[in-house]
């Protein structure tokens, strides 16, 4: 794998992480609007949101976002 292909793969992974973050946030907002903040799904999505925030925070620290 050359550097160009590696960079393309990295950028694809980053784009997927950002898209997932948007999706999770939107789903959480929908559940919150329905008053379903105590459901298992809501709690699991909140945990996923925090995990994504942590991973993306590492990218941000390195100036990649």
Q: Round the mean pLDDT to the nearest integer and report it.
A: 96
Determine the structural class based on helices, strands and strand pairing. Answer: mainly alpha
**What proportion of the residues is helical, as a percent range?**
over 70%
H-E order: HH
Please tally the helical runs, counting DSSP H or I stretches of 4 or more residues: 2
Shape: elongated
Measured by DSSP, the beta-strand proportion falls in under 5%
Describe the secondary structure blueprint for this structure.
Elements: H1 3-33, H2 40-61
Helix pairs in contact: 1-2
Describe the structure.
This protein is mainly alpha-helical and 65 residues long. It has two helices and no strands.
């Amino acid at each position: 794998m050359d550097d160009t292909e590696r960079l393309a793969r990295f950028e694809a992974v980053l784009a997927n992480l950002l898209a997932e973050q948007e999706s999770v946030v939107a789903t959480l907002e929908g559940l919150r609007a329905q008053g379903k903040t105590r459901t298992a799904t809501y709690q699991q999505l909140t945990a996923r949101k925090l995990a994504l925030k942590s991973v993306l925070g590492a990218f941000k620290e390195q100036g990649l976002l």
